[in-house]
Structure formats: structure tokens, C-alpha cells
Here is the input.
Amino acid sequence: MKKKHYFGRATMFLLCAVFAVMFLLPTVLTISNSFMAESEIVSNYGMIFSTTTGGYVSKTVNLKFIPDKVTLDQYISGLIKTPDYLIKYWNSILLVLPIVIFQVAIASVAAYSFTRWRGKVRSGIFFFYVILMLMPYQVTLVPNYLVSQWLGIINTRWSIVLPGIFAPFSVFLLTKFMRRIPYSLIEAAKVDGAGEWQIFTRVCLPQCRSAIFSIAILVFIDYWNMVEQPLVLLKDADSQPLSVFLSSINTGEIGLAFAMATVYMIPSLLLFLYGEAYLVEGIATSGSVKG
Amino acid sequence: MKDSLRKSNKRKDFLKSLCFLCPSLLGVGVFFILPFGVVVYYSLIDGPASKKFVMFDNFVRLFHNSAFRLAAKNTLTFSLMAVPLAVILAMVLALMLESRIPLKSQFRTFFLSPMMVPVASVVLIWQVLFNYNGTINELFLFGGNKIDWLQSDYAQIVVLLLFLWKNLGYFMILFMAGLANIPKELLEVADVEGASEAYKFFAIKLRYLSPTVLFVTILSLINSFKVFREVYLLAGAYPYDPLYTLQHFMNNTFGSMDYQKLSAAAVIMALVMVVIIALLFLAEDWFGKDVEG
Here is the structure.
């Protein structure tokens, strides 16, 4: 009986390990390939992304983990020699950071309102926010485009940043976090004579610190990964974020593409290493649409 | 007198709540509600110049458009594959991490990690794997006939794998949260009574997980509508037929500035979404009562 139990656990462990390898493989391969010399890349993947001539090219693709010789050439040529990638990287930052900061800031005020006061009108509005949050981009794309035209901000980063700031995701999630704060805390502050703004800044916000961090992480990865908005709203190639630009890298520079792909995932991977617990908490809280 | 005081308090509360809500509400109004109203209007008129109401002509025209029909069909087939797989696999992952095995928290980290990797960063690997000369053909040589996966009828499978890779971690966390909500006593009683694992799963766990199953179903359905991003990065703006999505249709229609067609497509999509979301709310109410009662 006991032996059978042991066997079950071993199988389970093996299964987990297989899944783990599959989940990690793409990321690890991208990173390890970014340290390969261009000649090695060409010999491994030449037949797929070939525009180059000369050098040895194997007939089939060669997926390799460990470079023959570790080199930082791709990073140097991508980050120092040509400013292109750095500009696109900077574009990504300029698009994403304001969205994260202001979306969370505006959401925290709105979430306080949804937490503190309930009523038919407000739960109606909250319901509407949830619907809006769940809408795929195909629905909001045309409205976004029209507003940007009216305001004259089309082809500027404001056409992405402004709608992003008012996206309802943070409001929804932060409201759910705030409603967990014991009402007695707010009541006590009221008895002590605190005004609403004071209750909000002195009682509510300090309680929500970790919640705000998990929401900020979720918003960040969502927008760091964006493709649809810049494709439609930014016609200018120079203002594209790196997420879009990566796919247009000349196929002859495949080694460079690996290096830039790695550089692009660094911020979110760092956030993950530092804030995995917050991320998990944020996801778990989003797990139902009821407020 | 007391009554009128309460009334004025209520009004004051309402005004205060509006004060806190107004920055967000204003933004949502300007950037989403107002323009969506215009989109609905556009979908009902025949052109920006003549502004004549044509009722459902634009929708009829849309349904006759072959590109739109292809996109709708592709989205439907993709969702039909992606949603059940996502729900079942995510649940399996969560259940696996519930058993007593070593390195559990590391496994969770690994399963969740793809969520943090921008799709743009890993599409290169996908291209290497599924190219005509790629690794998958090399390893599995399907009957000796190599295929160029992204240019074949199986193209959706390539995207499906990327979709699952990216989304399973998120869904798994939702299931783990659901599993944590199951009352421990119930499972202990089942253990004492000598219930089998299968019985415990179907009679207790699945029953308590049903709201999560539903939520993940809806969420993966919505995410499967967003798969354009993956397709675009893998196959570009004009992919092989099975990969043509609604977002491709809209992006390419923007080129011709046909607002009537675009608006009609957006309105249809919004209606479909509202129906799906309403089902979610109804079912969440229903399941919630079932578990609590």
C-alpha cells in the first residue's frame, strides 16, 4: 500500500518535471542563444533565416543550448553601435511607465469610492467596468482610433497612454482588495474625526500597499507585451515600442534578434523574481467577477 | 426631522462618492463610452458624407464579406480547441502541485514564468521549432513528409501551443486558489471514510471548483479572441488562411478607412462579449449558491 503511494508521487514528480522543461525551454533557449557568435547562429539556423551567404550552413536546424564560445557581440552591436534598439526600448518605457503609474493612481481613488459607498448606481457602474475590462481589443480599437483623431493625438504616444490610464482593470482588482479591509478600521477613523480624504490616504492606502504592487506588476506585463495598439495608432516606425519592432528585425540579423529579445524580457523577469508572491496574490484575487 | 437628516446624509455620501469616482469616470466616458456610442451610430449609417440611416445594411454587408467570415470561422475553431485544453491542463497542473512532491514552489515558479516573458521575445524559438527545416520536423518526421507548420492546415496548432504556454500559469494559479477554498474537514472526513482519490475529486473538489472552472472557461475564451498578437508576431499581417483573425480583418480594413464596416464588426464583437459575460455572471451566482447551500 505504502509502496504504491510512493510510486504515485514519483510519477507525479516526473510529470511535473517534464512540464517544467517545456515551460522553461523557450525562455532558456532564447537567452542562451543570445550569447552565440553570429557565425554559430548562421550555421545553426542559416537555412531558416537565411539571407547571408558564405560560411558553413548545416542542412537542418541545430537547436543548441550551450554556445561554443560565449560572446557579447550581439549585445554590443545592438545596444552600443546602433541607437535603433535603444530608441525603441525607450519608446516602450515611455509608453508603459505612465500607464502603470497613472492607471493605479486613478484606480485607487475610484476603488475607494466603490469600497466606501455602495448603492444601485455605483454597483451598476462597477458592473459596467467589469464588462469593459473583459472586452477584447477589437471592440475598443475603433473607439480609441476615433477619439485620438478628434483630440489630434493620433500617431503620438498619447493615443495609447491616455486610454491605457483609464483602463478599468486596476479599478476592478483594487476594489476587490480594498473590500477586504475591515470596516471597523474606517469606522474608527471616522469616530476620530478624519475626513474622507484622510481615511483614504491614512487608513486605506497603507493597507493596500502590497495589493497596489501586485496590480502594478500585472498592468506592467500586460502593456509591456502590447502589439495591437501601436500597430494601429502609431504609424510612425520610429515611435514603435520594442515589442513590435522585434518582429521586424531583419532575418539576417538573427543573433541580434535573440540578444534584443533577451534584453526586452529582463525588466519583467526581474519583477517576477522579486515579486512572484505579489503576482500570485493578484491573480488569485482576480478569480471572480463579483465585487 | 430625523428622516430628512438621513436623506441629506445620503445625498452627501452620494456626492462624496462621485468626487472620488469622477477622475476615472470622466476618462472612461471620454475614451470608451462616448466613442463607442459614435461607433454604434456609424454602424447604422451608410457613409460619413450622406449620414443616411440604413439600419442593418452594414451588418448584412459584413456577414457577406468573405474575409470577415473566414476570421469568424477561424476564431471559432481556435476557441473550440483552446478553451477545453486550457481549462483541463490548468486544472491538472494545479492538482499536481497539490500532491506531496518535492520542489513544489519551484515548479509553480516555472509554470508561471511564461506569463512574464513578452511573446515578442520567444517567437523566434517558435519559428525555429516549426519551420520546414525546423526541430519538430527533424525530431518527429511525420511519415517522412516534412511540413512547413505555419503554412499548413496545422498552423493553428502552432499558435495553440504558444497560447497554452503563455496562459496556463495564470489559470493554474486561479485553480490553486479555488482548491485552497475547499473546506479541509470535508476532505479529511472523506479520507477517514476511505474514499478513493477519484471519488474525492469528482464528489468534492470538482464541485467546489465549479465556479473556477467557469471563470477560467470565460477568461480563456476571451484570451483566445486576443490571439492575434501571437499570430501577428509569428506570421505577420497577412498570414496563411487558417490564421487570419478578426483583428487582422480590422487592421487591414483600417487601411481602406471603411468605418462602416469597422464599426459593424466592433458592435458585433461587443454584443457577443456581452452575452458571454452575462452568462458568466448568471452562472457565478448559480454556482455560488450551490456551494454555499
